[in-house]
Amino acid sequence: MREEGRAGVAVIPDSARPIVDQITAAGVIVAWNLAPAEWFIVDALAKRSGPDMLAAAAVQAARRNRNGVSHARYFLRTWQALPPAPAEGTTAPNGPGADVIPLDPTAPRKGRAAQSADHLAAALAAMEAQQ
């Protein structure tokens, strides 16, 4: 692995391509010219937590950062704090989404909490529409 190819162009190892592609597809555009040792860390973390978890954590971290993220190095600390991927066949108690209580959209709501819920619902709908 080399840090950079021709004239500053990042060389992304094949093993990291799924992570980079998912993050880029989510609209998070960062520089990927990591040092060889950093690519080894990314590879080890992907084997431990899985590329999907790394990509999801990176997208969340980038969206939480109000100043924007310009380099993939920013994600390394976040990725190192992730747990290992769950064992194959592990499911949430009582199935996925069991702890979610659906709200009645026709019920009148008042206050800031309700407004926040409406804003979150609109943001989630927009994210789903982009996917």
Proportion of beta-strand residues: under 5%
Our measurement of the CA-to-CA distance between the termini, rounded to an integer number of angstroms, reads 32 Å
Run of helices and strands: HHHHH
Low-confidence stretches: 1-5
Gyration radius over CA? 19 Å
Shape: globular
Residues in helices, as a percent range: 40-55%
Overall pLDDT level: 84
Number of strands: 0
- Helix and strand content put the structural class at mainly alpha
How many H/I helices? 5
- Specify the biggest β-sheet: none
Describe the structure.
Helices cover 50% and strands 0% of the residues. It has helices at 17-25, 36-49, 51-64, 73-80, 111-130. Helix 1 runs parallel beside helix 3 and helix 2 crosses helix 3. The radius of gyration is 19 Å and the shape is globular. It has a domain at 6-86.
Output the keywords.
131 residues, mainly alpha
Short recap of the structure:
The protein is mostly helical and 131 residues long. It has helices spanning 17-25, 36-49, 51-64, 73-80, 111-130.
List the helices and strands and how they pair.
Elements (H helix, E strand, L loop, with lengths): L16 H9 L10 H14 L1 H14 L8 H8 L30 H20 L1
